[in-house]
Design goal:
The chain has about 425 residues and is of the alpha/beta class. The chain folds into three domains: about 170 residues, Rossmann fold (3-Layer(aba) Sandwich); about 120 residues, Nitrogenase molybdenum iron protein domain (Rossmann fold, 3-Layer(aba) Sandwich); about 90 residues, Rossmann fold, CATH 3.40.50. The protein is about 45% helix and about 15% strand. The strands form three sheets. Strands 1-12-11-10-13-14 form a six-stranded parallel β-sheet, with helices on both faces. α2 links the parallel β2 and β3. It is globular. The N and C termini lie far apart (about 50 Å). About 50% of the residues are buried. Its EC number is 1.3.7.7. Keywords: 4Fe-4S, ATP-binding, Bacteriochlorophyll biosynthesis, Chlorophyll biosynthesis, Iron, Iron-sulfur, Metal-binding, Nucleotide-binding, Oxidoreductase, Photosynthesis. One of its GO terms (molecular function) is oxidoreductase activity, acting on iron-sulfur proteins as donors. This is Light-independent protochlorophyllide reductase subunit N. Pathway: Porphyrin-containing compound metabolism; bacteriochlorophyll biosynthesis (light-independent).
Length: about 425
């Protein structure tokens, strides 16, 4: 299937020197992953064991009104809990009992650790085992950490999915497991493409319901849709599943390469592949060409934030005509990110981790046309005359696969269009 997409550059970035940074970091809390996960897993509830600050963060990030009944909440640790004056396990059991008695629709309960619960060494794994014994088989109780200590915000989803892998039933069936939370409309488009190729059966993790048939074993092959799922990748390999290494499905090229890896694994002919992908590819290329006009010849600088940086840099340089100055990633995993690094033309500084002051100095010296960064850096850089794009917006917005390729280019073009309009108005 290698003839189905643009050949890789003569020299990619997979073997480029990596600048290792280990200093002050600007990160967003991993609890924010709950905002898209609770919409995706429709019979689940996410109970954060944390502080009032955690509760305010979730309410603000989700925009949930006071009279709404979302599928997440916070078991608030009071000062007496933090001081060790209360039996926190007994308090947690009481809270869970109240929750499940009031919400009988809950089939999966995630206990989500936070910075405060980790500081006081609250053992949520033991609590999950105890509560599973109490409420099984009606409710499955799992736990994971959403703490913002030494993590980036997308690792909340990674930790959640990694916690689900050990409890998946074993199977010997040859199946494709697609891993990563996608908006329903994007997931449906993906499943339609795979169905057109004749690939199946296809399972999706996370499933929308705990009752969805799904298993994992040595005959399972899996494809990741999100570049931040490295712990889930490791958990699936421990279960014997086989990873289909491929660029991530952003833009025409990434989507085609991702589908090509699956098609090759399942013996899809070149003729069938072309028949299924030709029309959506044509639409994607046209949409990208129209949306990316302001990006041609412009430079981009990526701060490490969402773990999407390498595949997005590949998309912008190869499909939108941009030049990457620096591409920073919180963590680089060769088996996961290597295929995109192969396609990213050599030239940019590849960096891993962060020393935010030093990276800010490099960004200011380079004066890029577009800086992709976290919320905490965007406004100060805008005040210095640099156009920015919030990295978190690229996680909350549907951007995968062919039909969203033009929208993805538009997200990056919008700040440059805005700056051009404001510049004309100022004159």
């Amino acid at each position: 299937m290698t003839d189905q997409f643009t050949p890789p550059p003569a020299l990619g970035c997979r073997t480029s020197p990596v600048l290792k940074q280990r200093g002050q970091r600007e990160v967003f809390c991993g609890l924010t992953g709950i905002i898209w996960l609770h919409r995706k897993i429709q019979d689940a509830f996410f109970l954060v064991v944390g502080s009032r600050t955690c509760a305010h963060l979730l309410q603000s990030a989700a925009g949930v009104m006071i009279f709404a009944e979302p599928r997440f909440g916070t078991a608030i640790l009071e000062e007496s809990d933090l001081a060790g004056l209360n039996d926190t396990h007994a308090e947690l059991d009481r809270t869970v009992n109240e929750l499940l008695s009031r919400r009988p629709d809950i089939r999966q309960l995630f206990l989500v650790g936070s910075c405060p619960s980790e500081v006081i060494k609250l053992d949520l794994s033991r609590a999950a085992e105890r509560l599973t014994q109490q409420f099984a088989p009606k409710v499955r109780v799992l736990e994971y950490s959403g703490s913002g200590i030494e993590t980036t915000f997308t690792q909340g989803e990674d930790a959640c999915l990694a916690a689900m892998v050990p409890v998946l039933p074993a199977t010997n069936e040859r199946e494709l497991l697609v891993v990563g939370a996608l908006p329903d409309v994007v997931e449906d488009q993906m499943l339609s493409l795979l169905d057109g190729l004749g690939v199946g059966p296809v399972r999706v993790l996370p499933a929308r319901s705990v009752d969805t048939e799904m298993g994992v074993g040595e005959n399972t092959v899996y494809a990741l849709t999100q570049p931040f799922l490295t712990e889930t990748h490791a958990a699936l390999e421990r279960r014997g599943a086989h990873h289909l290494a491929a660029p991530f499905p952003f833009g025409d090229e990434g989507t085609t390469a991702w589908l090509a890896a699956i098609a090759a694994e399942f013996g899809v002919s070149d003729e069938k592949f072309k028949e299924v992908t030709e029309a959506p590819r044509r639409r994607a290329r046209a949409a990208i060409a129209q949306a990316s006009q302001p990006l041609h010849g412009q430079s981009a600088f990526f701060f490490p934030d969402s773990q999407l940086e390498v595949p997005l840099a590949r998309f912008l340089t190869r499909e939108c005509g941009m030049t990457a100055i620096e591409v920073g990633m919180p963590y680089i995993h060769d088996a996961v990110h290597g295929p995109d690094l192969d396609l990213l033309p050599s030239g940019p500084q590849i960096s891993e981790g962060q020393d935010v002051d030093m990276q800010l100095d490099r960004c200011r010296a380079a004066r890029p046309d577009l800086t992709v960064c976290g919320l905490g850096l965007a406004n100060p850089l805008e005040a210095e005359g640099l156009s920015t794009k919030w990295a978190i917006e690229l996680v909350f917005t549907p951007v995968h696969f062919y039909e969203q390729a033009g929208d993805l280019a538009s997200l990056f073009a919008r700040p440059l269009r805005r700056k051009s309009i404001l510049g004309v108005a100022a004159e």
